[in-house]
Amino acid sequence: MPIDIKRGRLAFQRLGRELTKIAKHPAPESVHKFRTNSRRVEALLSEVAPELNRNDKKLLKLLSRLRKKAGRVRDLDVEIASLRSLKIPEGNGHKSQFVDTLVQERAQREQKLAKAFNRETAAELQKRLKRAASEIEIPKNTEPLSLTLNKLVKLGRDHVPLTERTLHQYRIIGKRARYIAELADHDAEAKRIVDQLKNMQDVIGDWHDWLKLTQKAEALFGGVRDSALVAMLRNVTQAKFRQSVDAVAETRAALSSKKSEPAHAIAPPSRKPSVGSADPSAAAVA
Q: What percent of the chain has pLDDT over 70?
């Protein structure tokens, strides 16, 4: 099934709309949609278009810079929501203190993001988006499903033990492959792969968000013996890691038509389980 060029150009249009919104006010939903649609445009230009012109290269460079700034704001939005969802006695007040710290950092990051999306930058980005959308040329015989499967070779064949680092790489590879598969025009197999990859991407992304939150808490409050909050966050993060490992195993099996790997084939997280800490199920995850 060939690429739906109309669907491809729609990514440029959606990104342009979110750009207008985020330039006015970087609300959490706008920040998230800007990052998602910018990655779709990047995947289309970098993975599908046969050649990048001068405008495309400048557009990708500009998007990369702005997406990183938007990503820092988005990460804080998720971290604040996740932290607030934890049900834990206040005790020494670490949770409230941590929330306040993240909220303050979020306000600072929002100011920097708004400054980055100044009028001149927004106008340039809109101009380059329109030009790239009008000039993009994709060979008629380009098959998005074939491109996707080529990117997913490692997901189906690579059976090395998973670590925190390699697990995050699976999310990155899966995300780009998913955006390419979305370009297929009403293809049932492509939709199946998109759904599988989205599930894996969401589960790993959830783990990664909790991991970053835990690392920040450890920097503020120390280890599990120093803070009940840190102990709970570590346990939640480790539970999320195991869920991510299962999601990768399911995706590998789905793409290779093989049975899921046994649990002992997967490497555990690098941290040792915390002693005497709260049960991860006690946390209400948003």
A: 84
Rounded-to-integer distance, Cα 237 and Cα 166, Å: 16
Residues with Cβ within 8 Å of 136's Cβ and at least 6 positions away in sequence, in order, are 8, 9, 44, 45, 49
pLDDT higher than threshold 50 for residue 278: no
Which residue in this structure is represented by tokens 């869920």?
A: 243
Taken as a whole, the chain contains a residue count of: 286
- Mean pLDDT over residues 124-140, rounded? 86
Provide the strand spans (E) within 181-227: none
CA 248 centroid distance within chain: 15
Q: How far apart are CA 155 and CA 164, in angstroms?
A: 16
CA angle 27/41/29 to nearest 5° reads 15
Query: What's the confidence (pLDDT) of residue 131?
Result: 92
Q: What percent of the chain is helix, strand and coil (3-state, nearest 5)?
A: 75, 0, 25
Which amino acid, residue 168? H
147: phi > 0 → left, psi -120 to 50 → alpha, else beta; which?
A: alpha
- 68 vs 35, 63, 166, 286, CA distance in Å? 9, 8, 21, 24
Contact 179, 143 (CB under 8 A): no
Positive or negative: CA dihedral 210, 215, 217, 221: positive
Cα gap 220→216, rounded to integer Å: 6
